[in-house]
Design brief:
123 residues, alpha+beta
Length: 123
């Protein structure tokens, strides 16, 4: 499960969480940040400035680490299903990219009963 664009995906040093159970139960929310809803209406230079400030502050607030997923290595602003922008931890643009799918999914089964993980993305 992932939010609908626009959102910011947190790229990290670990491809798997340190606790799969915690990640399945709600830890994947640490991999996503709300993008300001009106940011895509701004001219590109203003979008980048707003996003740069947001990701830089996030990295500072988190001490450079993402719970369960290791060090923050960068960010990806997902504008739409077909457009994304990679950003460094200081907010500088690394590259303009095409479509992006987060590289994981989670599920949890206990006693033969499947649970659908849910999370809310918050600022």
């Amino acid at each position: 499960m992932r939010p609908k664009p626009p959102y910011i995906y947190v790229e990290t040093s670990l491809t798997r969480p340190t606790s799969i159970t915690c990640a399945a139960w709600g830890g994947v929310k640490f991999k996503f940040i709300d993008a300001p809803p009106d940011v895509t209406a701004l001219p590109e230079a203003e979008q980048i400035a707003a996003l740069a400030a947001l990701v830089l502050q996030h990295c500072i607030d988190m001490g450079g680490e993402c719970p369960l997923f290791g060090f923050i290595t960068g960010y990806r602003f997902v504008m739409s299903e077909s457009v994304s922008i990679r950003l460094a931890t200081d907010g500088t643009v690394v590259e303009h990219c095409g479509a992006f799918q987060p590289p994981f999914s989670v599920s949890l089964e206990i006693g033969g009963k499947a649970f659908k993980p849910s999370f809310t993305v918050s600022r």
